[in-house]
Amino acid sequence: MPLTFDMPLKKLRFYRGRNPRPKDFDKFWDRSLKEMKAVDPDVKLVKSDFKAPGVECFDMFFTGVGNARIHAKLLRPVKVTRPGPAVLMFHGYSGHAGDWFDKLGFAACGFTVAALDCRGQAGRSEDPGGVTGNTLRGHLIRGLANDPEKLLFRQIFLDTAQLAGIVMDMPGVDRKRVGVTGGSQGGGLTLACAALEPGIKLAAPTFPFLCDYRRVWEMDQAKDAYGELQEFFRWFDPRHEKEDLWFTRLGYIDVQHLCPRIRAKVNMAIGLMDTVCPPSTQFAAYNKIRSIKTLELYPDFRHEGLPERSDNIFKFMSNL
Question: What is the C-alpha radius of gyration for the chain, rounded to an integer number of angstroms?
């Protein structure tokens, strides 16, 4: 078995992260959730042209924080005799909710499925903006030079929680049987959603992004998905005079600090050769989860498709 390029597995199992946690972290998120709950979501369902036997497909729109209209794909069984389970899906960085087809397996088995389009990425959700700094690329650092409440991932994290609440309130959904899943950015959002919506029952993240930014920096892995960290310093703080401030501010959207809030049962997967989201950053999040949790390790795999992972997620969600 090859060694992880990061640190030995024995150390990974106890690693607790390097990125600072802001002193007012919990108050920040409690205040943010209060803002989210004050928003009238004004949910609209638009019947999709995509059709499948026994399943209804809708484009769903709702209003998120900052008055953004957020889009998600919604699938639900046609014949519902009693409230059933639901699963929320979150996509990878820069992407979108994906095709209808890859959600049919859950819908055919009686699940309501909602797949979010992250605001400002490749899907149909709005990004109202309202910040200074670059907009060419860099959602991770979007709003970093302003103040924590302008951080784009603050809004995206809240969108996941708001989507969960909307789905839980649907007539055909048993609100006690809702799970969340996703890979990379979707893995980070899976953990964030489970942390911000305590009613989530099961969470299945795969190699989560958005964890332990300072560790990424110290490993010289600020490239690929984390490349904008280097770009931020080159553009806005070339001598690193405010480095501690920036990493502390990023701490508000560091998923590892949200993980102690999670009540859901968690099944997580990590590739030990992952150079995009280094294993230690993912363990920083996993090791802070206090609820029931299991870990699937892939010693030879990087940030790529993991064999049997989709099957295992389906089996896990079948416990709802």
Answer: 19
